[in-house]
Design brief:
The protein is of the alpha/beta class and 225 residues long. The chain is built from five helices and eleven strands. The protein has helices at residues 16-26, 68-78, 88-95, 152-160, 212-224, and strands at residues 4-9, 29-34, 45-48, 83-86, 102-104, 112-120, 136-143, 147-149, 164-168, 180-184, 190-193. A hairpin with a 5-residue loop joins strand 10 (180-184) and strand 11. The protein starts with a strand and ends with a helix. Its EC number is 6.3.5.3, 3.5.1.2. The active site is at residues 87, 196, 198. It is found in: Cytoplasm. It catalyses: L-glutamine + H2O = L-glutamate + NH4(+); N(2)-formyl-N(1)-(5-phospho-beta-D-ribosyl)glycinamide + L-glutamine + ATP + H2O = 2-formamido-N(1)-(5-O-phospho-beta-D-ribosyl)acetamidine + L-glutamate + ADP + phosphate + H(+). Its main location: cytoplasm.
Length: 225
């Protein structure tokens, strides 16, 4: 039976179609989820994609985190459903309390759009099992408010528990604490990252196909549940 992965669309979402394409390329069925509907349509996993939900008013992801669909995502995540937040989706997951910390303006106050090498720090999550530990992958980064921040205590806990999933291989261009590019929940089922794996699923259109590994990993995780 084909796995079904939901992709949420909020007002201002830009990358839902790209995320759905990545899901399909991985061999799953992409299911469109609407922000105003408290219904996950029986999906096996959820992707919260990138963009500018609600125009990034208030704080990036703050309004979207209170959408009806997110109430269902929060409940499903607490029950072990794999959830991936990409860029604005990462911001939304932090605002929703599914991941700790917050995002600030990039260090130099500029929008960054370029390919970045990431190191896989933890290949034991629901979204990274297809990667070798410490592998370096090439993924596009495009954000203006992607600087990951958290209290020193939270950073220490994330590092100690192996919950830093991706780290910029070089100096973080956005100034993220400890060069953090992505983190996970305590159980490894929820992952958020600022770079865009859905834009790196085919060498013809992206800098690599490295991003496909996240979506293939999710399929493995769904099968094991």
């Amino acid at each position: 039976m084909t796995a079904r992965i939901g992709v949420i669309t909020f007002p201002g979402t830009l990358d839902d179609i790209d995320a759905s394409r990545a899901v399909t390329r991985a061999g799953a069925e992409a299911v469109s989820l609407w922000h105003a509907d408290a219904d996950l349509k029986g999906v096996d996993a959820v992707v919260v994609p990138g963009g500018f939900s609600y125009g990034d008013y208030l704080r990036c992801g703050a309004i979207a985190s209170m959408a009806p669909v997110m109430g269902e995502v929060i409940s499903a995540a607490k029950g072990g459903m794999p959830v991936l937040g990409i860029c604005n989706g990462f911001q939304i997951l932090c605002e929703a309390g599914l991941l700790p910390g917050a995002m600030g303006r990039n260090r130099d106050m500029h929008f960054i759009c370029r390919d970045e090498w990431l190191r896989v720090e933890n290949n034991g999550t629901a979204w990274t099992s297809r990667f070798e530990q410490d592998a370096e992958i090439l993924i596009p980064l495009k954000s203006g408010e992607g600087r990951y921040m958290a209290t020193p205590e939270t950073i220490e806990k994330l590092e100690a528990e192996g919950r830093v999933v991706f780290r910029f291989a070089g100096d973080a261009p956005n100034g993220s604490t400890n060069n953090i590019a992505g983190i996970s929940s305590a159980d490894g089922r929820v992952v958020g990252l600022m770079p865009h794996p859905e834009h790196a699923i085919d060498p013809l259109t992206g800098p690599s196909d490295d991003g496909l590994g996240l979506f293939l990993s999710a399929l493995d995780s769904i099968v094991r549940v």
